[in-house]
Amino acid sequence: MNLTSIPGNEKCADCCEPDPKYSAYNLGILICENCAAIHKTLGPHISKVKSLNLENWDDNTLNSLRSLGNTKVNSKYEENVPLFYKRPLPSDPQVVKEQWIRAKYERKEFFGDKKLSYAAGYKEGYLWKKGKDDKHFQKRRFILDTTENTLKYFRKEEDRDPKGCLRLDGINMMILPKKIGHPNAMQILYEQNEQTRNLFIYADDGQELIEWYTAVRAAKLNRLKIAYPNVDVVNLSTKIMWEYIKEGWLSKTGPRSGDAFRRRWVTLDSKKLTYYEDPFCPYPKGEVFIGSQGFEVEKKLINSGASNSKEVKDPNMAFIVKVPERCFQFLAETVEDADDWVEKIRTVIISN
């Protein structure tokens, strides 16, 4: 039907997945299979969806689609998307894509001069937080207040003093439903006593999760604009949050010959490797900061004298990270995973 040759139609109107196979034809856009499934939940009064190749099309509908297209329609529905709002990518979790689509077409949050009330600088509500010791999720009252630059949470409704108080400009949030085991979950990282602290939380519904996430993003961008008044705000908007480059299980030995390999949950970001006893530990066991001068990564087994070194099925599963003061030995669960860790760590070293 040549609809994909129209500028903007070569990718999904909502998540930018290449080569869309569906159309929300009453809106005049082409979308991917995943976003098409979300559009169908909106109801036909908002979005009517058909496959481009598996269903019949009449000339009037085709002509309408040719006259519109993704670029033209998005200029209307995305007219006033704030720079702090996260636009979804194909790899993003379902809740990010769904709430973006609902915000665009159902709630029309970016249409005209509509303001996002939840990003106005103050937000109060309830989220479920994983306990530091008992590991169960408990309902907690959260308050975001940009005048104080804080995100606070309280154990009980009547409590006056918060259980935790986080500086907004020091927070990082990642939406990680698969890791945490809930569709509306995210991980919050911040510094506490010069150490990384993790909170794992979820919201009762996807809209509430994204509103909290977006409220913090809005607050952080405002703080960045104050701190860096001469930096272009579009550039600042790319610095609001960061994502893990990779995370997963690795085994690690201590610095002494004969130290045993111990299984650790390891995360990699653009600054450091961090390792934990398990994925939900509030504090890390250790952090390896990565620079450029004097830092290396290579496939190598140097601690063959580890007390449980017989567990090393293939030396190619082992790799080391060299920093100026010492060398860290890691062991992946497969050769392919070791190769991926090495490649990604090397990229971080080069970029620093």
Automatic annotation (TrEMBL):
<dbReference type="InterPro" id="IPR011993">
    <property type="entry name" value="PH-like_dom_sf"/>
</dbReference>
<keyword id="KW-0863">Zinc-finger</keyword>
<feature type="domain" description="PH">
    <location>
        <begin position="120"/>
        <end position="221"/>
    </location>
</feature>
<keyword id="KW-0479">Metal-binding</keyword>
<dbReference type="InterPro" id="IPR037278">
    <property type="entry name" value="ARFGAP/RecO"/>
</dbReference>
<dbReference type="Pfam" id="PF01412">
    <property type="entry name" value="ArfGap"/>
</dbReference>
<dbReference type="InterPro" id="IPR052589">
    <property type="entry name" value="Arf-GAP_dual-PH_domain"/>
</dbReference>
<dbReference type="InterPro" id="IPR001164">
    <property type="entry name" value="ArfGAP_dom"/>
</dbReference>
<dbReference type="GO" id="GO:0008270">
    <property type="term" value="F:zinc ion binding"/>
</dbReference>
<dbReference type="InterPro" id="IPR038508">
    <property type="entry name" value="ArfGAP_dom_sf"/>
</dbReference>
<dbReference type="GO" id="GO:0005886">
    <property type="term" value="C:plasma membrane"/>
</dbReference>
<protein>
    <recommendedName>
        <fullName>Arf-GAP with dual PH domain-containing protein 1</fullName>
    </recommendedName>
</protein>
<keyword id="KW-0677">Repeat</keyword>
<dbReference type="InterPro" id="IPR001849">
    <property type="entry name" value="PH_domain"/>
</dbReference>
<dbReference type="GO" id="GO:1902936">
    <property type="term" value="F:phosphatidylinositol bisphosphate binding"/>
</dbReference>
<keyword id="KW-0343">GTPase activation</keyword>
<dbReference type="GO" id="GO:0005547">
    <property type="term" value="F:phosphatidylinositol-3,4,5-trisphosphate binding"/>
</dbReference>
<dbReference type="GO" id="GO:0005096">
    <property type="term" value="F:GTPase activator activity"/>
</dbReference>
<feature type="domain" description="Arf-GAP">
    <location>
        <begin position="1"/>
        <end position="110"/>
    </location>
</feature>
<feature type="domain" description="PH">
    <location>
        <begin position="243"/>
        <end position="350"/>
    </location>
</feature>
<keyword id="KW-0963">Cytoplasm</keyword>
<dbReference type="InterPro" id="IPR037849">
    <property type="entry name" value="PH1_ADAP"/>
</dbReference>
<keyword id="KW-0862">Zinc</keyword>
<dbReference type="GO" id="GO:0005737">
    <property type="term" value="C:cytoplasm"/>
</dbReference>
<dbReference type="Pfam" id="PF00169">
    <property type="entry name" value="PH"/>
</dbReference>
